[in-house]
Write a structure and sequence with these properties.
mainly alpha
């Protein structure tokens, strides 16, 4: 990685930290990676944060997001038509 790459990534991280200043550095890392990886889905900050599940005894899973036919599915969506969505 060149010095310019490092500067560019650091600038991107700094800008992102300003947008979600309430996160700890370790939490921000997971947020930023998810934001970069999923940016073409245009998820909101709330949707990105809701998918972060990092913690003790998580078997190494830092975040999880569900997409059906390219559409993000969250707790507020009902996948079952008129039936009640299962409670998590």
């Amino acid at each position: 990685m060149t010095a310019n790459d490092v500067v560019m990534i650091q600038t991107m991280l700094d800008r992102s930290r300003l947008q979600v200043a309430s996160l700890l550095p370790t939490e921000h890392h997971n947020f930023w990676v998810a934001e970069q990886y999923l940016k073409h889905y245009n998820l909101s900050h709330e949707e990105l944060l809701a998918g972060i599940v990092d913690g003790e005894r998580d078997c190494g899973i830092d975040a999880i997001y569900l997409f059906v036919n390219g559409v993000h599915v969250s707790r507020r969506h009902s996948c079952c038509g008129s039936r009640k969505a299962p409670e998590c």
